[in-house]
Write a structure and sequence with these properties.
Blueprint (H helix, E strand, L loop, with lengths): L14 H8 L4 H15 L8 E2 L3 E2 L9 E2 L2 E5 L2 E8 L4 H17 L2 E2 L2 E2 L4 E8 L9 E4 L2 E2 L4 E2 L4 E7 H9 L3 H6 L1 H7 L3 H11 L2 H14 L2 H5 L3 H27 L2 H21 L4 H8 L3 H10 L5
Parallel strand pairs: 5-8, 8-12
Antiparallel strand pairs: 1-4, 2-3, 4-5, 6-7, 9-12, 10-11
Helix pairs in contact: 1-8, 4-6, 7-8, 10-11
Length: 305
C-alpha cells in the first residue's frame, strides 16, 4: 500500500514528481521516458541522444525569458514536453508562443538552417475539456489544397485524464494500448496501486514504486513546486477571507453582522478566484457556496471575466 507519511499524495500531474520519475540521465529514467514518448507519438522511439538546455534566449527587451519543461533530442527529432496541471485556452496560447520561439531558436545548425530535424511539442494536459480528443496532432496543413507545408513541425495535445477514464470504466483493451499515458492520468494512490498490480508491467511498477518512494520522502515533498504552492495559496486565501468574515461579524456584535461578514468574505473569495480563472467546481469546494450561487455572483459582477 502507499505510505501515509505525507498528508497529501502528489501524483504525476505535479511537475516535480513527473520529472523525478521520467527525466534523468540514469538508464531507468531514460527507458521510461522513451516508452512514454513512444506512446505519445504512436511510434517506437529508440534512443535519447541528449537533453537540450531548456532556457530560451531573450532576444529583445519585449520578450520574456522561459524555461521549457523538457527538450529531448531523439533520432533527429527535437521534442519539447510540457506538463499542464490545469489546462485551458491561456495555456494553449502560452504553449504555442513558446513552441514557435523554441523552433526559431533551434532551426540553425552551424552556418545553415536545420532541414533535417523534426520539431515536436507535446502537451500532457490535466483538467482539459471533456470534449477534447485523447490525442490531437496539429500540423501546417492546407485543407482546401490537401497539402502539408512541412511535416517536421507537429504540435500534440494529450488529454491524460481521458486515458485514465479507460481504467475507471474498466476498458482494459484501451488501457493496454497506452498503459503509461493511462497511468499518469491516475491521481489517486490506491488506484495507482491497483493499476500497477493489475497491469503487471515492469515499467508501470517502476513508476508507481518510485512515486511512492518520493511521496514518503519528507525533504523531497517539502520543496514546494508551483502547483503545490498554488494549492497552498488557495487554502490560505480561504482562511484569510473566512477569518475576515468572522472578525467583521463579531465587530458588529450581532449574529446578523457575523453572517453578513461571512457572506461578504465568500463573495470576495469567489470574485478573486473567478478573476484568476479557477473552475467553478473548485471555487465551490473552497467557499462552500453552490455552483449556482457562484454563477450568480459572476453574472452580477461585470468586472469578473
Amino acid at each position: 500500500m502507499i505510505s501515509q507519511e505525507t498528508k497529501t499524495f502528489y501524483a504525476f500531474n505535479i511537475d516535480k514528481m513527473f520529472k523525478a520519475v521520467f527525466v534523468g540521465t540514469d538508464e531507468i529514467s531514460k527507458r521510461l521516458l522513451l516508452e512514454l514518448l513512444s506512446e505519445c507519438l504512436d511510434t517506437k522511439v529508440d534512443k535519447i541522444i541528449g537533453f537540450i538546455p531548456i532556457e530560451l534566449g531573450v532576444r529583445s527587451k519585449y520578450e520574456r525569458s522561459k524555461r521549457l519543461d523538457l527538450i529531448v533530442e531523439i533520432d533527429g527529432r527535437k521534442i519539447n514536453v510540457e506538463l499542464n496541471s490545469s489546462f485551458d485556452e491561456v495555456n494553449r496560447i502560452r504553449n504555442l508562443n513558446y513552441y514557435f520561439s523554441f523552433c526559431s531558436q533551434y532551426t540553425i545548425e552551424g552556418d545553415a538552417y536545420d532541414i533535417e530535424s523534426d520539431f515536436i511539442h507535446i502537451s500532457l494536459n490535466y483538467k482539459a475539456s471533456k470534449n477534447s480528443p485523447l490525442i490531437a496532432c496539429y500540423t501546417f496543413y492546407d485543407k482546401e489544397n490537401k497539402k502539408e507545408l512541412d511535416r517536421r513541425f507537429r504540435y500534440y495535445e494529450i488529454n491524460v485524464e481521458k486515458f485514465a477514464k479507460f481504467w475507471y470504466d474498466k476498458d482494459m483493451k484501451s488501457v493496454r494500448e497506452k498503459p503509461l499515458l493511462t497511468m499518469i492520468g491516475i491521481k489517486d494512490p490506491e488506484e495507482l496501486d491497483k493499476y500497477s498490480e493489475k497491469m503487471a508491467i515492469s515499467s508501470i511498477k517502476e513508476c508507481v514504486d518510485k512515486l511512492k518512494t518520493l511521496n514518503s520522502d519528507k525533504k523531497f515533498v517539502y520543496n514546494i513546486t508551483p502547483e503545490q504552492d498554488d494549492i497552498l495559496t488557495k487554502n490560505t486565501l480561504k482562511k484569510i477571507y473566512k477569518s475576515e468574515g468572522l472578525a467583521e461579524g463579531k465587530a458588529e456584535g450581532l449574529a446578523e453582522g457575523e453572517a453578513k461578514g461571512k457572506i461578504e468574505a465568500q463573495r470576495e473569495i469567489t470574485i478573486n478566484l473567478l478573476k484568476n480563472n479557477y473552475p467553478i467546481e473548485e471555487i465551490a469546494k473552497i467557499t462552500g457556496l453552490s455552483e449556482e450561487e457562484i454563477k450568480n455572483i459572476e453574472l452580477n459582477n461585470n468586472h469578473v471575466n
